[in-house]
Amino acid sequence: MTDRELGDDSSAVPYEPQSKQWPSDRALLLVHGVGNAGPGDYRLLLDRVRGVLGESASKTAIYQLFYDPINDWFTAKTELDERIDGMMRTVHEGLGDSPLAGMIAEFIGDVLWPVLSQAARTSIRESYLAQLKQMVLDGIESGHRPKRQNISIVCHSLGCFHTYEALHAAAAFPTHGLQPATHGVRFQNVVFMASPVQLIRAAAQRLSGLVPGRWMATLNPDGLTRPYEESFGRKVYSVDNWVSITGTLDPIGGYFMRKRAQWAYMVVSGQNSIVDPQDGLVENDEELRTIYAKSIQKNKPPEIDDKNPHSWVGYVVRHSPQLREWLAS
């Protein structure tokens, strides 16, 4: 398959990746979910991550992937109303008779709708790959060969989908210079927080033509897998430690009202699966309904709310010990 078949779009808005000097052999990429975020919007998250890293923060080059230079496609949301409604109906049917079904379906639809735009997905994937290439180049410039680089990724919500797609494209297509065997580029940790990858896969499969595009790793007929490159008859995986973290009240991560929905929860062979019991976050279903309603914003990152089961900051804080072990060891 060629890059053209992959869906490259030469008309995509040019993306200027972040470039940093590495203070050691360690780098971290933070990838947010939906919303027109820019530098400063995730300051609290960045502070929490630095706190988790402790003394290792000063030894880690921390990058953030922002979508703001390529967000013109957000204005096209109204053109996708029919597809968005179709996705929401699919989710609603999967929730059964829950009194919160309508609100949860709307919440999920608001978070996931950008995946319905091929222009959005192509632009973000190519920007993501450009950022990964720049990180590897920065590491080389700082004296660390790709095989000696310790790169980790922490992603949240729809950012998990973009991460999944970008890593598979990196492993599959040699022109990016990011393959694990040919180019020696491997990722020490990739931590998915509230991943909607399986939810997107299920919704797309149930509604024929829901998600446009000629190539999408999420829709691979063989199922969800860790990205790899075939080399001398063996699989060389791109990620050493593949982690999925979600919560029992987080529908984006595949849990509907404390119950795992097998059709919506991401399961990948070799995955380290962690599920937070989130009952203590809210007192009742009405409070949860209010939280979901507040989370639905127009093209903006979700508000920081300690009680929000989908909060990125919440996941980082609750899993500080594990993140420190993975990212700072």
Give a quick rundown of the structure:
This protein is an alpha/beta fold. The protein is built from ten helices and ten strands.
Would you mind describing this structure in some detail?
With 329 residues, the chain is α/β, with parallel strands linked by helices. It has one domain (27-328). The chain is 36% helix and 16% strand. A 6-stranded parallel β-sheet has the order 2-1-3-4-7-10. Helix 2 (43-53) runs parallel beside helix 9. The protein is globular. The termini are far apart. The model is unreliable at 1-12 (pLDDT under 50).
Main attributes of the structure:
alpha/beta; globular; 10 strands; two-stranded antiparallel ribbon; 329 residues; single chain; disordered N terminus; 10 helices; 6-stranded parallel sheet
Overall average pLDDT: 84
* Helix/strand/pairing category: alpha/beta
SSE arrangement, N to C = HEHEHHHEHEHEEEEEEHHH
Low-confidence stretches: 1-12
- Helical content band: 25-40%
DSSP strand content: 15-25%
User: What's the assembly state of these chains?
Assistant: single chain
Query: How does the overall form come out from the CA principal axes?
Result: globular
Query: How many domains, in number, for the residues?
Result: 1
| Strands in their spatial order, largest beta sheet | 2-1-3-4-7-10
Q: Please count the helical segments.
A: 10
Radius of gyration: 19 Å
Strand segment tally: 10
Q: Termini, distance in Å?
A: 38 Å
Largest sheet: 6 strands, parallel
